[in-house]
Amino acid sequence: MIKHVVLFQLKDEMTEAEKLQVMKAFKEGILALPVQIPCIKHIEVGFNVNPNEKYEVALSSEFETLEDVKTYAVHPAHVAVAQIIVPHMKARACSDYEF
After folding, report:
1. CA dist list (Å): 2 to 5, 24, 59, 81
2. 44-50 — which CB contacts under 8 Å span 24+ positions?
3. Residue range 43-92, pLDDT digits in tens
4. Which CATH number does the domain housing residue 47 bear?
5. Structural domain contains residue 73
6. Rounded-to-integer distance, Cα 33 and Cα 25, Å
7. Inside any domain, residue 74
8. Does residue 65 fall inside a structural domain?
9. Structural domain boundaries enclosing 45
10. Total domains present in the chain
11. CA pair distance 10, 40, nearest whole angstrom
12. Most exposed: 17, 64, 72, 94, by fewest CB within 10 Å?
């Protein structure tokens, strides 16, 4: 199994209200993906509650193989949801690991 973890930091010039709006829309879109992308075994999105950390959004998902992660990454439904957050990103970090 592969765990796919992505952290998102939003642009500093966004207000907290703007950030929350983007974060909620992104979460809603991500949570709708398993119906459209069957290779997703589990997916969740959380919002950072620690003000000492710089990444606001964490996405954690599980797949059978790294090839499934690649399939998910280019799937049109995922690409569309990613466009909710991409224009507002300051930074992104990702790790894919076996568990």
Report:
1. 10, 25, 14, 21
2. 47/23
3. 999 999 999 999 999 999 999 999 999 999 999 999 999 999 999 999 99
4. 3.30.70.100
5. no
6. 13
7. no
8. no
9. 2-58+81-98
10. 1
11. 25
12. 17
